[in-house]
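Can't attach files on this board, so I'm pasting raw text. These are the components:
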Amino acid sequence: MPKGHTLKAFDDDLDRLRALISEMGGLAEHAIRESMRCLQQRDVEGAAKIVENDKKLDALEIETERRAVQLIALRAPMAGDLRDVVAALKISGVVERIGDYAKNIAKRVPQLEDAGKIEALSLMPEMARIATEMVHDVLTAFVERDAEAAVRVMKRDDAVDDFYDSIFRTLLTHMMEDPQNIGQSAHLLFIAKNLERAGDHATNIAEMVYYAATGQHMTEAQTGKKP
Amino acid sequence: MKEKMPLTPVPAPSASIAAEASEADLTKPEEATGTDSAPALAKPRPRRSKEPAIDPKKTPKMRAQEVDVFYGEKQALKNVSIDIHDDRVTAFIGPSGCGKSTFLRCLNRMNDTIPTARVTGLIELDGQDITDPGMDVVQLRARVGMVFQKPNPFPKSIYENVAYGPRIHGLADGKSKLDEIVEKSLKRAGLWDEVKDRLQESGTALSGGQQQRLCIARAIAVDPEVILMDEPCSALDPIATAKIEELIHELRGRYAIAIVTHNMQQAARVSQRTAFFHLGELVEYGKTSEIFTNPRERRTQDYITGRYG
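---
Top answer:
Structure tokens for the assembled complex are below.
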């Protein structure tokens, strides 16, 4: 938005909504990063903390919804403002979901305490790094109303999907080698799936950001999705 | 000046044209929000009763092309071109002094009443140039009725307020026919139930919202083809406003309606097309749903989101 509203309080309300989304994003990114650290270091206590902290995200989602509804009722936003508010409402739900994936990963940490050297495990931090960066960048794009940045985030999802495919294959081999590995491998597969879902959700947010910023839906060429 | 102008000032024996438009298209148009921009028109609309279905190539009810208006030296309207269709409500929005009321008043030559006003360009009603000096202005204003910001009922009975137009235009032969027109008009204006037992009371004794609906009943009593409304709700409370808006919704499809409003929410609620004026220019004209969710022009966006000025 180039210039502020005649009514300054309107700008304050919109800024507060954006700040809430940023805060939620920060928590979700941190949760994923922490879940990876706990997984690598077999930190069961840290993992329990992630599960506990997820409640904050839930509370922020409710707060975002409350503020968005209030803003619609009291300010009657139009055009770009309206698209922004609706996007914030939707994005908060998605970010909360990303937080749930981190929680799900954390819950699996105790099951993997005595997991030995599994090759797939070494691929995960990099996969998680890309997924969290996507979440971070797409929310920055939302706050800055940057449609181009949203498109760039979209295109990085392929890398996450590639990681998932290769982890899947590695774990399959591992399971076939020794049925005793199946339990742990299944957990790791779910963890990889969670990261893959987080990346997918970041691309969904990218679409919402693009629409909010431009009023147009992303074209197929821009989504860069593999057919 | 404009608030005091009665709708049908002088008698004229011109029942014929107005009568034709009456009952032909009672059914309502299909879409409420209007999926009828140029590309979307490819989809044919369902046929309606007697009238042929709206053809995308059909001449609009009113067409303005390259209209300029000058008040003395000052140019109030610059090169405005708008089509007004008879099955939808067209809203004109914009900040004060943007030319929206000036444009509305061109459509039934109300600017003729301002000595310094000069209008150039083409304004057509059903393909007929209304700026032609030979045009019968009284007859034009019977076909293109107007409702003003402030309710302006005649200081006569409720009945007479509505009966006046049809009588002077010779629309009714005999008392029973006139009674029928009065009842029908008051019903269409949503006022009948409130006034049917006191038709002989003065129109000025009604509440503001009732007076405005009386003015609308008076406007539709002469079976106009187009109704122009210049801020019809700005002097009314929210409930009376809602009633007028519901009425506009009911009347759509029977009459082409153009409304000037400062209340953007109202434009969004009642219209299918919205035109945004700024400094005498038509900045943007399009589907209301698009104007309010995704306007093309920066100036429109700034105005409707409250960033103007």
